[in-house]
Amino acid sequence: DWSTAIETVRPALESFYADRAQLGHDRDLPQGDSLSGPLEEIVRSRLIIGSPDECAKQIEMYKALGIENISMRMRW
After folding, report:
1. What is the pLDDT of residues 11-39, one digit of tens each?
2. Which of 2, 15, 22, 71 has the smallest count of CB within 10 Å of its CB?
3. How many other C-beta atoms can be found within 10 angstroms of the C-beta atom of residue 29?
4. Which of 65, 61, 75, 69 minimizes the C-alpha distance to 5?
């Protein structure tokens, strides 16, 4: 599930996003968006993460919006 997925990726992602925030990568993000703060908030709108069923639902949401292609980058 989503909680298990977050805990699985937390060691890699917390340091990744902390590093990016320290380098100033969030300066160009939309107002109110940040790479700092709780990991759960940072990844919620950036990553498809969770159980296989949860990920499939997220992909279906994009499909319903008319998105036909998704590029995926696996980091772990």
Report:
1. 989 999 999 999 998 888 888 888 988 99
2. 71
3. 10
4. 75
Q: DSSP class of residue 27?
A: T
pLDDT band at 75 (very low <50, low <70, confident <90, very high): low
Residue 46: C-alpha distances to residues 14, 33 (Å): 14, 11
- Which stretches of 1-76 are DSSP H helices? 2-22, 39-44, 52-64
Please state, as a whole number, how many other Cβ atoms lie within 10 Å of the Cβ of residue 14.
Answer: 13
Distant-in-sequence, close-in-space partners of 47: CB < 8 Å, separation ≥ 6: none
User: CA–CA separation, 44 vs 13, rounded Å?
Assistant: 12
